[in-house]
User: Fold this.
Amino acid sequence: MERKVKSTSMDEGSSMPRKEKPGMIDYSEARDRRTAHQRTVRRRDYIQLGRTKPPMSVGMKAFYRTLVMMAICFVINILLPFDADIVTLPIKRATTFDVSLPKVSGAVSSIEHHHFTSEGVNCHGWLVLPKLPEGTPPPGIVVVFHGLGSQKDMGLVRYAESFAEGGIASLVIDYRGFGGSDGMPRHMIDPMKQAEDVVSAVENLIGHPHNGKKFDASRVGLFGTSLGGGIALVAASKLGDKVGAVVSQSPSLDGLENVKFNLQKRGFLSSFRVLLAAITDALRGLCGYRPAMMKMIGVTGLDFSVLQVDREELVAYYSKHPARGGG
Assistant:
């Protein structure tokens, strides 16, 4: 006799058959497919997170774009300065100072070349001796030096002539990197190094073979104008008793006050332009490029220069100075 067997289903992981009831839906197959899909998605998400970074916000994208643009401008600014008035052409030491001597007045007995070494750099000066009666002891001597960005052929001989009229000898010097002195880069303003140049000039006079014959280096004075006036005070503090007198004429003493004055005279934008030029020069130096230079003196509001003066004052300034001999 044939026996009818009722169909059954089995749960996953179970050996017991599950009886089907009328109207009952088997979800086991759909559940198994869903579980496998979730495992696949989780595995895929895990792999993606391990290989890529989370999405970047719009603000961060803008920030990084700005950094890239700044880096590009930085490189361009070093290779090609942003300002057309910034000069990067090389300046060579003038050789005219090696052979030529300025004309002097009748109070001067003689003027001659004088060389001394400052921190390994050969510096140049003019030794100006006064006319003295026979039998007069050697005169005392004054070391004369200029201010910001200037050199000895820009009017300093006139001071030496005045000292000669009073029976005083003078050593008119160029800082390193200016005029007849060696040193690279040219025309770099470094007050502390320039103070060392003055100290070296005095020590050279003290140990010079002409000391006690042409001049008396036991009676030494310093004469500086503008930035040179501040340098004179710094050099005198280093020399101590080796210096008997100091003339600090309209000295530059406070850098912060100078900044305040320039801000008032130039305005913020012009002062910021000078600051950018200084930063450009510093960056070019770090990268081994030639220095970035700007004009020394010019008309207020018209020229891009370190010093700003009125047109009439600029004309008067140059009228007092002979033609610059280069350097």
In short: The mean pLDDT is 81. Residues 36 and 220 are 99 Å apart (CA to CA).
